[in-house]
Amino acid sequence: MTLKTVLRIKKFFALLDSTGVVLRKKGSKRLLEYSDSSSIHIGVCLDESASGTNSIALAMRLKSSIYTLPHQHYCLFLKKWHIFSELLIIDKNTEGYLSLFSTEHLTNEFILITKLLAYKISNETKNMKKNYAIAINGGIGLTPRQLGVLKMIARGDTDMLVALKMGINVGTIRYHKTNIFRKLKVESALQAVVTALKLRLISLNDIDA
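That's the DNA-binding NarL/FixJ family response regulator sequence above. Prediction below.
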């Protein structure tokens, strides 16, 4: 079952920070509007002090994944939702939560999908933080976006292909390349890749990916 299929059937995902504040939501436009009208909007806090007993609050307190039913929620605006919450763990620290809200009972399949998605988000965030730290600590100062462009250059992607993959225009890619070359003190893409490998900003695995 694909993520698009999940989102079509009366369910939406919410990404929350470590304090229980909703940062982003993903789902059908109609369901997101419905959730907004139900007070589950960007910026709302779902920790226990603000919203009483609920899946996110319990996950925060018990430090484990939690599935709660509508009647188990304290606040009225949550009593229409089945909620499963999974921790986003990075370097043994809980950095946030991924919750799946549904107007229907959640099967094990949906719970597994949420767990896998949370694992993917945690890993990608960990890698981004690691790469950013390497670039900054190495005194180079490459941003995560610049590092991403550099990796695609290393794979031989053209400016147009990089732009398509990143969803930005070619001019912006060329601007990033100019800054990458300046920070690495090189004059070509090949020199940039060689220098980045020497400084361990990228690895051979990045090139072969």
